[in-house]
Design a protein that fits this description.
The protein contains 3 helices and 2 strands. By secondary structure, the chain is of the alpha+beta class. Helix 2 packs across helix 3.
């Protein structure tokens, strides 16, 4: 991983970019194994205030998602009240399980 601030994929050196494919692949496999999702969305924007750097969102697309919740609309879940979100303790458990699966 670069230790400098990088705001776009094309700003990575070939050496920095090379491991990204394998990392995304392994994380996607682990996310699918742990959550049972149907597929994993991989997104990269790097434009929101405070997030203007290279980072990826790997989002599980669950079976019960409606047509209106699929694709880029998956971010509409962030507009739900926090009381509807997965509880913090469960998020920590999922993160540890995904890390272990990788």
């Amino acid at each position: 991983m670069p230790i400098r601030h990088v705001t776009a994929l094309e700003d990575l050196t070939p050496e920095e970019a090379a491991p990204l494919g394998e990392l995304i692949y392994k994380a996607s496999l682990a996310l699918r194994k742990v959550t049972g999702c149907l597929k994993v969305y991989v997104m990269f924007f790097a434009e929101s205030e405070g997030f203007q750097h290279v980072h990826f969102h790997l989002v599980p697309r669950m079976e019960n998602f409606t047509d209106e919740q699929r694709g880029p609309n998956v971010f509409t879940f962030l507009k739900h009240p926090e009381s509807d979100w997965v509880p913090l303790e469960e998020r920590d458990r999922l993160a540890a399980a995904i890390r272990g699966a990788m």
